[in-house]
Amino acid sequence: MEEVFKPYLNTDEELVWVDQPSPGALAQQYMSESFHGLFGCLFMLAITSMLWAQPTVNAAAFYLVAAAVTWGWGYSLVKLLKPFWHFFMARYLVYGISDQRLIIARTFPSKRFTSYFPSDLEPTETLDRGNDIGDVTFQKEQWKGNTRKPQFRKVGFFGIKDFHKVASAIDYLKS
Questions:
Q1: CA angle, 37 as apex, 36 and 41 as ends, to 5°?
Q2: 3-state DSSP call for residue 114?
Q3: H or E segment and range at residue 65
Q4: How many C-beta neighbours within 10 Å does residue 172 have?
């Protein structure tokens, strides 16, 4: 895992910690969205069965309703399958702490590295997921969601082993 970071480190920079997330813990974060997707699929199944039973008189109305139903199915299926996607993608995610910054690397579909320097970090928060696996969050990023009001999402290392030691290492880096 360390070889992922080697080409991107400064010459005077040294890795302190490297790990990958637990696929199950990463997928567990999205279970509530999966339940929303399940209910959406059930709702779309009911709508589709009602529309299937009704003969369509107007072709334009049929295409409009078919487009809305197709969009509803797609949205619901994306929500339903989100935990499985994150479970699969966990193998392409690597977390690292150097003596100068925190790094999150995604290696698929293309390599993308995000660095967080000590001046960017907020107080760390931890969440215990059991079996010495947990989450360490160190920043909140503004994210434009479905509403006009800005939303924030937590940034951190999710589903990692020895998360208390990692939180201590991050706090040490900030000081």
A1: 120
A2: strand
A3: helix 59-89
A4: 12
* Position 143, amino acid: W
Residue 84 exposure: Cα atoms within 13 Å on the Cβ side? 8
Q: Output phi, psi for 61, to 5 deg.
A: -65, -40
Task: Report the alpha-carbon distance of residue 64 to residue 61 in Å, rounded.
Answer: 5
Six token digits for residue 174: 């900030």
The CA-atom distances, in angstroms, between 66 and each of 28, 52, 57, 75, 91 are 33, 10, 14, 14, 37
Rg value, the chain, Cα:
21
Helix, strand, or coil (residue 14): coil
Quick one: which H or E segment has residue 146? none
pLDDT in tens, 69-88: 899 999 999 999 999 999 99
pLDDT tens string 123-132: 999 999 888 8
Answer whether 170's CB lies under 8 Å from 142's CB: no
